[in-house]
Amino acid sequence: MREIIMKKTSLFFACSLVALSLTGCASLEQTQLNDKVVKPDMLVLIENANQAYTNKNWVEAEQGYREIIKTMNRDEFSYFRLGNTLLRQGRLDEAEDELLYAIELNPQFLEARHNLSTVYILKAEKQVQTMKKSVSGDQRQAVERKAEWLRKAASESLQ
User: Quick one: what percent of the chain has pLDDT higher than 70?
Assistant: First the structure.
C-alpha cells in the first residue's frame, strides 16, 4: 500500500514538474500545486524530502518535511510523511502528534489513520513488554502471546 502511495506521490510531483517546465511556469515566482501556492524552490525541497523518504534516510526526510511545514503549515501530506519518519525512528509520541494533525487537516486521510493505528500497536507492544517483567506463570505466557501478536501486527502494518 505504502509503495503505491509513494509511486503516486513521485508520479504526481514528476508530472507537476513536467507541467511546470512545459508551460513555462517554473520561471514564475510561485505556482499552484495541489491547490496550494508553491514557490519553485519549495518544489526542490519537496523533491529532496521525498527522495530521502524513498531512500529510507529518515533523519534527512524529517528535516526536509519540517522545513516544508514551516512554509506550507496546512499541508497534511507533509505532516503525514513527518509522522512516518518519526515512526520509523521509534519516536512514537511525536509520530502520533504529527499523524493526528494530518488527520485534523484532512479527516478522510485513510493512510494517516492507518499509520496512526500502527503507532498505537507499537505503544501497546511497549506496555506489554513492561507487563512481562511483573508477571509470572500462566499470566506471563498470556502476556507473551499478546506481545507476539502485537509484534506481528506491527511488522505487517509497516511493510
Answer: 75
